[in-house]
Design brief:
alpha/beta, 10 strands, single chain, two-stranded antiparallel sheet, 252 residues, 18% strand, 8-stranded parallel β-barrel
């Protein structure tokens, strides 16, 4: 299977229905649907998935991640992930996004293969769990073996621009056997750099924020227990930021 193509995809990570609509308006071709923005994305609610599928016409891939934190899962958590994959399939979505590791940080090939089989005919993206593995290129080969369709990566760094040299190595090693999608901190300024190294897709939130419309604001308490997480800030995908990256891709 060869994934080399002149057609690059822009994917938006959306945490709300508003962001889904902005992604489509901005010209994105695919949405990664997530919950829990401050945990890096977890499985969104069934209602969110259903409404997103009803309201947008572009492809929807749903995050399958039962909790924040690491990517080693118990048997019960695996069962939850299986149930979520079945539910997403019933909703008619085009794909799922997941990543499973062993305790030693290596890719859990057998369980990922089972998830890929369960998800069919949906596609499967292996997410940034690859960035938490001890051997980046070994992880690539393992993920290819699982039958996943693409990898989302920041090059084992906090942002993709920091990891761009590693991503370039990954693209060359993959040699068209699997799609490579760069994500984390992607924007219109750095997008051309990723396109030059031959990635197949760009992944971004197009994030902006606005003040909550709440008038009464309770001081001295935070719902998540973390003072650095803003209680009265609304995070959303800005269609103009999405459009700017889409325009970069069109200029190829």
């Amino acid at each position: 299977m060869n994934f080399l193509s002149n057609s690059l995809i822009v994917e938006v990570c959306a945490f709300s229905l508003e962001s889904c609509l902005s992604a489509e308006k901005g010209g994105a071709k695919r949405i990664e649907l997530c919950g829990s923005i401050y945990e890096g994305g977890t499985t969104p609610s069934a209602g969110f998935i259903q409404l997103a599928k009803q309201r947008v016409s572009i492809e929807i891939y749903v995050m399958i991640r039962p909790r924040g934190g690491d990517f080693y899962y118990s048997d019960d958590e695996i069962s939850v992930m299986e149930a979520d994959i079945r539910m997403v399939k019933q909703c008619g979505c085009e794909g799922v996004v997941l990543g499973i590791l062993h305790k030693d940080g290596r890719v859990n090939v057998s369980q990922t293969k089972a998830f890929v089989a369960l998800a069919k005919p949906m596609q499967v993206t292996f997410h940034r769990a690859i960035d938490m593995t001890p051997d980046y290129l070994e992880a690539l080969e393992d993920i290819i073996e699982t039958g996943c369709d693409r990898i989302l990566t920041s090059g084992q760094k906090n942002t993709a621009i920091e990891g761009i040299d590693n991503i370039e190595i990954l693209v060359k090693q993959a040699n068209g056997r699997i799609e490579i999608m760069a994500g984390s901190g992607v924007n219109a300024i750095n997008a051309p750099m990723f396109l030059q190294i031959g990635v197949n897709a760009l992944h971004l939130t197009g994030k902006s924020s606005r003040d909550s419309e709440m008038v009464y604001r309770k001081e001295g308490i935070v719902m998540g227990g973390l003072s650095e997480v803003p209680e009265y800030e609304i995070i959303y995908s800005d269609f103009e930021k999405v459009r700017a990256v889409v325009d970069c891709v069109k200029c190829l």
